[in-house]
Specification:
Helix 1 crosses helix 5 (114-123) and helix 6 (156-166) crosses helix 7 (173-187). The longest helix has 16 residues, at 20-35. The two termini are 15 Å apart. The protein is built from eight helices and 16 strands. The protein has helices at residues 20-35, 49-59, 71-82, 103-107, 114-123, 156-166, 173-187, 245-254; strands at 8-12, 40-43, 64-69, 92-97, 126-137, 143-148, 151-155, 192-197, 200-201, 205-206, 209-213, 235-240, 266-271, 273-277, 283-286, 289-308. Helices cover 29% and strands 32% of the residues. By secondary structure, it is an alpha+beta fold. The chain has a 16-stranded mixed sheet that branches.
Length: 310
């Protein structure tokens, strides 16, 4: 940002968290107005609006774009910003976590109360961070290329996201994710996948999920990649193998305490690119959004985004 009162656009998903974000925003807006008297506010109405609004803001030369909502809102805004060339200097992304899921913000200690977040947005220093990029195909076979800031996965995690997107979220993020995870475990069959990691082809293996992480948390508070850093030029890979249903439920619970899963068929590593394929129909999600199906590639794009962090 180039001024103490930057040209700012707030992208507000008032429908996030079952409409609670809209109520929170209404209560906090006076503080935001005091901190950013010339800012514009635009509300999303449906899927894709966050990306469109963010892209238009970049093309108009806005210096700061703030995503107000959950991880899905952040995903759309970031993809809108990265999907176009800034006419001048690259804008900065700010995050006001106010949705049912705020896993990236949790991992970076970004506050969600109005006063500290306004202070961060007004006085913070932008930092260059990494993003991940996914290439795959959607259900109709059309190519998909998207960026993710926090984490992607293929396997049961993406199946849970699919259930969450087709059912109303009456429970908060952690409880809703756990409930749908338990329901999905009843019918999910662990697929066999083939993976190539940094050019090394692995033997096919049966997995319940593989997480490709840039941030530490996902799934409403699971610390799935406790060693992940958003500016180290690497992705953190968590391979969860052929675990049974009861064992999987028990091991997933461990991650809420912030520790690694201790199991001989759970493997942690880092990489720059992973390619995966399967003969089964294996879904892929990123930052809580269902994107497509294997085969796919996941790669790190170092220092790709200016982000305001504490």
């Amino acid at each position: 940002m180039t001024s103490s009162n930057p040209r700012a656009t707030f992208v507000v998903n008032a429908h996030a968290a079952g409409g609670r974000t809209g109520k929170r925003w209404a209560a906090c807006e006076p503080k935001m107005r005091a901190a950013f008297p010339t800012a514009e506010i635009q509300f999303t109405q449906g899927v894709g609006d966050g990306a469109r609004i963010a892209q238009q803001a970049v093309l108009r030369g806005q210096e700061l774009v703030v995503a107000v909502g959950g991880d899905g809102t952040l995903f759309e805004v970031m993809n809108g910003m990265l999907g176009c060339e800034a006419p001048d200097a690259a804008p900065t992304l700010g995050i006001w976590p106010a949705g049912s899921g705020a896993d990236f913000a949790r991992g970076q200690h970004i506050p969600n109360d109005a006063e500290p977040i306004c202070d961060l947005l007004a006085n913070g220093t932008p930092r260059l961070v990494d993003v991940g990029r996914i290439r795959c195909h959607d259900a109709s076979g059309a190519p998909v290329e998207k960026y993710f800031l926090n984490a992607a996965d293929f396997g049961i995690g993406a199946k849970v996201v699919e259930r969450l997107q087709t059912r109303s979220r009456l429970l908060p993020g952690k409880s809703s994710y756990l409930w749908q995870t338990l329901r999905t475990l009843v019918t999910f069959r662990n697929p066999q996948v083939s993976m190539e990691i940094d050019g090394v082809l692995l033997d096919p293996k049966t997995i319940i999920t593989v997480v490709v992480a840039n941030g530490r948390y996902f799934g409403g508070g699971m610390c799935i990649a406790p060693d992940a850093l958003i500016d180290d030029g690497e992705l953190n890979l968590v391979q969860v193998g052929d675990l049974g249903r009861i064992e999987a439920m028990r091991r997933l619970q461990e991650t809420f305490g912030g520790q690694r899963i201790e199991h001989p068929d759970v493997h942690y590593s880092t990489c720059k690119i992973i390619r995966a394929a399967s003969t089964s129909r294996v879904p892929i999600e990123a930052d809580g959004e269902l994107l497509g199906f294997l085969p796919a590639s996941f790669e790190i794009i170092p220092r790709a985004l200016n982000l305001l962090l504490p």
